[in-house]
Amino acid sequence: MLIFLVIIFLAVNIACVVLGAIALKYIAAEELIFSGMHMCGYGYEGDAQFLASMVWMLNTIWEVLALCLSVRIAVKHFRDLRHLGPMTGSTIGDCFRVLTQSHVLYFASSAGVSCVELINLSPAFLVR
User: Where are the transmembrane segments (predicted)?
Assistant: First the structure.
């Protein structure tokens, strides 16, 4: 399983770096001045916005895969704890509980950011 995860992780990240590098070639930054206020603006040429959305989609797929596997591990762990019976003062159980809570927060925030970004980039799909 670990080899599978490492291969998928490397494939997704290499693809994201390549797509990001290609997209950066077609993104032009410019300075905009509105009522004396300086702001940064970006101009997209060609398929730059589509390539950026592909990077977000690949990362979202990776996060969903990682979420499914972590839920599977958590369910398996809680089933094993149920079969062992009640234990008092379990340090390993406390560590696992903290790890699970932190991963839930991580995956929830990652899913929220990915959804917002994909909604923001959705006009790139409507044009096609």
Answer: 54-75
Which tokens belong to 37? 């206020």
Which residue has 């019976």 as its token pair?
Answer: 85
The pLDDT of residue 118: 74
Indicate whether 101 pLDDT > 90: no
Instruction: Say which amino acid occupies 120.
Output: N
The token pair at 80 is 């094993």
**Domain ranges in the chain?**
2-127
Q: Which residues of 58-81 are buried (b: 16+ CB within 10 A; e: fewer)?
A: bbbebbeebbeebeeebeeeeeee
